[in-house]
Predict the structure.
Amino acid sequence: MQSIRYEEKADSFYRTLRIYFILFLAVWSFREIVLPPYLSGLPETATALAKAALKIMVWIVPVWLFIRFRLKSDPADFLKLTANLRKGLLWGFGLSALLGLWFTIQAYALNGGGFHFNVSLDQFLNVFLLVGLTEEIVFRGLFLQALAKRLPFWKANAAAALLFLVIHYPIWLYQGTFFNLGSHAYVLFVGLVFGWIFRKTGSLWSVIILHSFHNFFLIII
């Protein structure tokens, strides 16, 4: 009887998680497809701040509330924001430095160009500072950990990486780049790597930092 009740609770939880992702995808698709013309009509600073506020409201706040009231856990502890902090920071900045070295070689030696540091406020705030925090809280912090409680890690990591890929679809559809299969493969690969690093370090900060610097190098290359 206890095992049956446990299975029922687990099934209920994963149904809730599926509904959460569907609603999350729907809201974010609305933001990415419908709102851009309205946001771009604002002054530059207002546009950047509005985008940041929307991302925090759509990505971080619901996760925080879901963990607090549905999972009955402390969000910072559940998301591994307080665990292995030193290790997470060392891995995050160390791997970011190695990634920076690769992008430097690519920019200067392979492409014969260099970095371009004319970064807008919108790019600095929403592509560098916030992307790692918001996206890793959702995909490695919530979905990967929740899936890994029921599936072997490699399956949970693959599923979380697929969800991470899918959340890019709205902006790719809006920009007309959806059929660039290389982007699909690259984002899926990055999601798998981030999941492995998160498991290795036990700290969400490792992938938050690496994700942020990864995007920063993509901006300036």
Q: What stands out?
A: The chain has a mean pLDDT of 94. Residues 2-33 form the longest helix (32 residues). Residues 44 and 120 are 9 Å apart (CA to CA). DSSP finds ten helices and no strands in the chain.
